[in-house]
Amino acid sequence: MKHHHLSLLLLFFALTLRSLTPTSAACHVDDETGLLAFKLGITADPSNMLSPWKKGTICCMWYGVTCNSNNRVRMLYLTGQPDKPNSSLSGTISPSLSKLKFLDRIYLQDLRNLTGPFPVCLFQLPNLKYVYIENSKLSGRIPDSVGNLTQLQALSFYYNRFTGPIPSSISRLTQLVQLKLGGNLLTGSIPTGIKNLNKLTYLTLERNGLSGPLPDFFASFPELRILNLTRNKFTGKIPASISALAPKLLYLELGHNALTGQIPAFLGNFKALDTLDLGYNKLTGTVPQTLANLTKIFNLDLSHNQLVDPFPQLNVKGIESLDLSYNKFHLNEIPKWVTSSPIIYSLKLANCGIKLKLEDWKPAQTYYYDYIDLSGNQITGSPVGLLNKTDFLVGFWASGNKLKFNLESLRIVQTLKDLDVSRNLVFGKVPKTVSGLDRLNVSYNHLCGQLPATKFPASAFLGNDCLCGSPLAACKKV
Ligand SMILES: *[C@@H]1O[C@H](CO)[C@@H](O)[C@H](O)[C@H]1NC(C)=O
Ligand SMILES: *[C@@H]1O[C@H](CO)[C@@H](O)[C@H](O)[C@H]1NC(C)=O
Ligand SMILES: *[C@@H]1O[C@H](CO)[C@@H](O)[C@H](O)[C@H]1NC(C)=O
Ligand SMILES: *[C@@H]1O[C@H](CO)[C@@H](O)[C@H](O)[C@H]1NC(C)=O
Ligand SMILES: *[C@@H]1O[C@H](CO)[C@@H](O)[C@H](O)[C@H]1NC(C)=O
Ligand SMILES: *[C@@H]1O[C@H](CO)[C@@H](O)[C@H](O)[C@H]1NC(C)=O
Ligand SMILES: *[C@@H]1O[C@H](CO)[C@@H](O)[C@H](O)[C@H]1NC(C)=O
């Protein structure tokens, strides 16, 4: 479903890898020594990634190693496969990597278990342009001397365990195009010196413990395409200078913070915006009507704020995911631009004041749906027809409505993991097919009969007319 996201990431990837021509020939002794020392620092290599690395063989042909036309090592590229837990490396990054004087790019991605502090060997590699050490367990502080790596065009420590503040010396890395520090344990505020990094296209600091107001410095990033500051502790208003990022910005993600104030009307100028995430903040007021101009938006999350009616009528050709849940909206109906979307896969409209007989909702397509959350509305009728047409549904939440249907008629597709129809008017028995779910809640309905064997707690079944059997009381013998 998210092809265009993928192609965007592939584009960044292609740009960073372009013009690399692998060569094979002898191996410079410094490069061989440095690489073998790196291998010595690795204590476990369960998929034998480094087993071809043997003294006296041509290091330019080793797995993960690429040389320049003078047979000097130019790139180290070792990546684990996210779906294969075995493809990991344990150990530390040897300081001997600094012997690889021509190394200009390091990719140590998804190796999961590289430990130790910030690799200071980087400071002795003057040509270094790209450093991606992602999804591992490096820890400690990011040292002030990071500011010495002034040739860097990309720096990513995405998903490690770095602590402490982002050093203000980072302002010296003025060639940086990508800065990715998401998924660490960083604290403190965003150093205002980041405003010097005028070439940034990609700034992602999500999932840290960063706090304070967002600096009003976004006019300094004319090339920015992706801004991800989600899941931190930022406070204050959405700064006015964000408006300078229009129309180029593609992703604006500020969700899961403590931002206050209104959603600024200038967001309507972000003609290229793909994703707007302002969910889980403390935003108030109405949603500006200018958002109707966001014709390219695919993902919109404004959930868990205190926003009020009226919600603008969007002019989108198709939306992929929408979450307006848990605000103070009274939408009355599911918006037409949602119902007509040919590509929607996630619809979350919990507590949105929707009054509807579910059979009367005729979405243009149902095939791609992964998630539907209509909890806490005033929806009547039955979801049986809808779930009959959603072949890949993963989650369906509709608690706290007035749905009336026989649970045994509800199709439970293999992909379904989460089903909550608690606090409705559901009748019939609990079918055996629910045992394949990860989570179930059918409490406070009118179900009856013996429960099938499942792993769910009693609270998933309480408050029905006559359900019996484990985890509820045993059924009476007839
Ligand atoms: C891990 O990889 C090694 C070497 O490729 C293989 O022998 C082993 O069976 C794998 N273990 C698992 C659990 O996949
Ligand atoms: C990660 O590395 C540590 C020490 O280097 C080791 O004790 C641990 O078993 C490794 N964990 C995995 C999952 O490989
Ligand atoms: C960083 O550069 C400063 C001078 O700009 C120098 O004093 C310091 O030793 C350098 N640090 C490292 C780790 O190279
Ligand atoms: C932004 O961060 C969130 C995690 O908080 C992640 O789910 C999302 O994919 C990120 N978006 C981009 C464009 O990096
Ligand atoms: C949408 O943009 C056009 C110009 O591109 C502008 O005239 C119009 O006022 C905008 N509409 C809204 C609702 O902001
Ligand atoms: C569900 O689909 C089956 C065939 O796939 C059909 O026989 C049945 O009538 C459908 N039920 C509803 C309520 O749409
Ligand atoms: C099921 O829903 C009820 C009421 O909505 C709630 O009190 C209970 O904790 C839920 N149980 C589970 C297992 O989700």
TrEMBL record:
Gene3D superfamilies: Ribonuclease Inhibitor. GO terms for cellular component: membrane. PANTHER family: POLYGALACTURONASE INHIBITOR 1, RECEPTOR-LIKE PROTEIN KINASE 5. Residues 30-68 form the Leucine-rich repeat-containing N-terminal plant-type domain. Residues 93-205 form the Disease resistance R13L4/SHOC-2-like LRR domain. It holds the Pfam family LRR_14. One of its GO terms (biological process) is defense response. It is found in: Cell envelope; Membrane. It comes from Rosa chinensis. It is a single-pass membrane protein. It comes from the Eukaryota. InterPro entries: Leu-rich_rpt (IPR001611), LRR_dom_sf (IPR032675), LRR_N_plant-typ (IPR013210), LRR_R13L4/SHOC2-like (IPR055414), PGIP (IPR051848). Belongs to the polygalacturonase-inhibiting protein family. Its main location: other. This is Putative leucine-rich repeat-containing, plant-type, leucine-rich repeat domain, L. Keywords: Glycoprotein, Leucine-rich repeat, Membrane, Repeat, Signal, Transmembrane, Transmembrane helix. Residues 1-26 form the signal peptide.
